[in-house]
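Work Package 4 report. The design task specified in the project plan requires that, given a folded chain encoded as C-alpha cells, an amino acid be chosen for each position. We show below one input record used in the internal validation round.
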C-alpha cells in the first residue's frame, strides 16, 4: 500500500523546513562565535591604569554569553563551560601586578570570586574610596 500524495508532500515540506532551520541555526552559531571572538580580542590586559575600559569590555563579553546578570547581580547560574571560559579569560587578561593582588588559592578556581576580587581591588584603589 503506498502513501497518499498529500503525505509525501507534507514529508518533503517538513524535511525542507528542518533543513532550513538547521542551516539558519548553524549560521547563527557561527555569527555568535565571531562576536565572541571579537569581544575576547578587544579585552585588553587589565593593568592599574585601564580598569574602566577593561571593565566595560568584559561586561560586553558577559553580555554576549548572556551571563551578565550572574556577575553583576548574582542572579541565576552559569554552566561549567561558561565558568571555565570566564575564569580563563579573566586570569589571562590581567597583568602580573594585578594578578598578585586578586588571585588567591581560595578564588583561583571560581570565576565569580575572581570577578568580585577584581572589582574590590580596583574599588579600593580608586582615590575617592581611599581615606
Amino acid at each position: 500500500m503506498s502513501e497518499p500524495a498529500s503525505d509525501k508532500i507534507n514529508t518533503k515540506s517538513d524535511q525542507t523546513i528542518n533543513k532550513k532551520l538547521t542551516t539558519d541555526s548553524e549560521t547563527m552559531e557561527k555569527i555568535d562565535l565571531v562576536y565572541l571572538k571579537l569581544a575576547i580580542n578587544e579585552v585588553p590586559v587589565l593593568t592599574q591604569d585601564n580598569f574602566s575600559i577593561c571593565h566595560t569590555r568584559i561586561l560586553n563579553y558577559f553580555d554576549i554569553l548572556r551571563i551578565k546578570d550572574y556577575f553583576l547581580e548574582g542572579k541565576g547560574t552559569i554552566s561549567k563551560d561558561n565558568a571555565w571560559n570566564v575564569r580563563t579569560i579573566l586570569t589571562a587578561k590581567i597583568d602580573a601586578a594585578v594578578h598578585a593582588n586578586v588571585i588567591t588559592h581560595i578564588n583561583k578556581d571560581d570565576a565569580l570570586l575572581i570577578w568580585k576580587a577584581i572589582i574590590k581591588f580596583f574599588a579600593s584603589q580608586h582615590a575617592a574610596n581611599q581615606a
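Residues 24-129 form one domain. Validation will be extended to a larger panel in the next phase.
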